[in-house]
Amino acid sequence: MKTISLIVPCHNEEQTINIYYDTTTAVFEQLNEQNVETYVPEFIFINDGSTDTTLDVLRKLQADHPETVHYISFSRNFGKEAAFSAGFDNASGDMVAVMDVDLQDPPELLLQMVPIVESGEYECVGSVQTTRKQNPIRAFLSSSFYKLINKMSDVEMKQNVRDYRLMSRKYVDAVLELPEYNRFTKGIFAWVGFETKYLEYEGVERSAGTSSWSIFELFEYSLEAVVDFSDVPLKMATIMGVIISFLSIIGLLFVVIRALAFGDAVSGWASTVSIILFLSGIQLFCLGIVGKYIGKIYLETKHRPAYVVEEKR
Q: What pTM was computed for the model?
């Protein structure tokens, strides 16, 4: 008998939890019918500061199924990455899966994932959405992000890859070796390496409820990813500084030579002020980039926990 831990972050998901549990339990019944080995689920629900009745639903579900259902409730909303960290810290299974509770990550895909990992050829099986109904602006930003991050980072992150994946114990142990406070899990999955097979599936609608991610939050999340996995912005700031300094020297030589040759004062105060404002903007932009990295360092050196648990069963 083998245990498969299922890490399931929940934020205001009162409508979807029971639907997810029933659907996934049925998938495990099919899995055990198709294989000689018996697989037991270990549900690890992470209540990430929900303001609805998510915690009450989890309490009842755990009381009804104490052997297979567990939950961790945070003291406040710490974010998706903290929820993943809590799940990895508490998963004890022979294999570990990360899934969304809204069933946009179809549990039926486990029927294909488990045999692939068990074969030993791959340590991880990921998932890629081939079609997805998405706001055009959000789709454009998502596509642009992956193009940008892959050019700036040393590790390649496949576009349209979901967090949904099944990992071997070896893979999970490697992820646990990365203790950083600032985490971008998709980047961490790519960084640890190992052979990963990707399965494609068509995007599906949420089973219930609505997404809590806004475009601004996704943009901020993307910005965090760039800073966590690339120092290219710092290099860009340095290059811009060198270029502007070089142009400033040329401009200074031009002014001096013109004054010596013609003896007249330099006119054009409006353009001069515009240039000063432009250069000041560049300086502030570069300072902001440096500040972002310093902020990351500051958070790392504080050694704060990624999350605080209020209740756990």
A: 0.74
